Amino acid sequence: MKLDKLSRYDLNLLINLQVLLEEQSVSKAAKRLHVTQSAMSKTLARLRDLFEDPLFIRSAHGLRPTPRAESLHTQLASALQDIQQLIQPPKFDPATTQRDFTIVTVDSAYQLFLPSFFAPLLKAAPNMVLTFEDWSEESLQSIAQGRIDLGITARENAIDSRHQLDPIPPGVKFQHLLEDHEDHFVCLVRKDHPILSKPSWQIADYLSLSHVQASCEGHDRWALDITLAKQNKSRRIVVQVPEFHAALEITRNSDLIFTCPHIFARHAVQNYPLAMLPLPITIDTITYLMTWHQRYESDPGHKWLRETLYQHIRDNQASTFNFNH
């Protein structure tokens, strides 16, 4: 290895190139690296000289990487991660760590899995800081870029759903959070809802009610609605809210019906004056996942957090719910 030749190069340029590859925008890269747009433009010019390639071509949607830049992307991310691992302590001690992790999670998963996690976490890692953000349309991309440490989401298993398992980007690792990997949907109504006095519960009864719906990733229609549409049926959704907690509050105070995953419904009926009904139509299941970028796979602190959270979820849910019923 000719280290004397390597020393002639400014290795900070590689960091700048990685950020440009992730953002594909000079202004966004400049903001992220806390430099001016002019300085970032000069850096891009130096990178072009270094690699003897334009690296990026301007388009209507920002910078488009050249084939040379695309070939560098995965290799560069891995090399920078290796360098970061070299300068980090080889061991991780939760009792003394001061690391800050950013976690994005869908609202239902937060309510189900996380409130009881903080007490044991603070006992084991009193100086660790967790920053939580709501899951959004950009969350998977942020995880794919390594900008978010951990994500907890739910994916529908229906082939024609926009929330499938398949669209998870390359390089993003995941782990199932439920013992049998899947959950089904049920309905929630207030405990004194008139529908509960009916002798039968059929799809016609379900569709006769007005519905409240919680959105995710900007979408307000699910595999359920696709299945109904194939049968020339549809729900009457009269209230659309951004989170499951709001849907529960509305359901307990109205005649609206809320359709949600079974495990969440079992949590809800323990904490709200609600009754559970089966969903009178067969649809595909849902999967809860913990996701992270593959570059964090062997990071000792990240691995400790994943394993601790996973074990807490499994232990807590096993003691609260019977997954097989």
Automatic annotation (TrEMBL):
Keyword Ribosomal protein listed: no
Parts forming coiled coils: none
Domain of life from the UniProt record: Bacteria
InterPro entries for this protein: LysR-type_TF (IPR050389), LysR_HTH_N (IPR000847), LysR_subst-bd (IPR005119), WH-like_DNA-bd_sf (IPR036388), WH_DNA-bd_sf (IPR036390), YidZ_PBP2 (IPR037402)
Entry's transmembrane regions: none
Keywords: DNA-binding, Transcription, Transcription regulation
Residue intervals of the HTH lysR-type domain: 9-66
Keyword Transcription: yes
UniProt family annotation: Belongs to the LysR transcriptional regulatory family.
Matches recorded under PANTHER family: HTH-TYPE TRANSCRIPTIONAL REGULATOR LEUO-RELATED, TRANSCRIPTIONAL REGULATOR LYSR FAMILY
Record-given protein name: LysR family transcriptional regulator
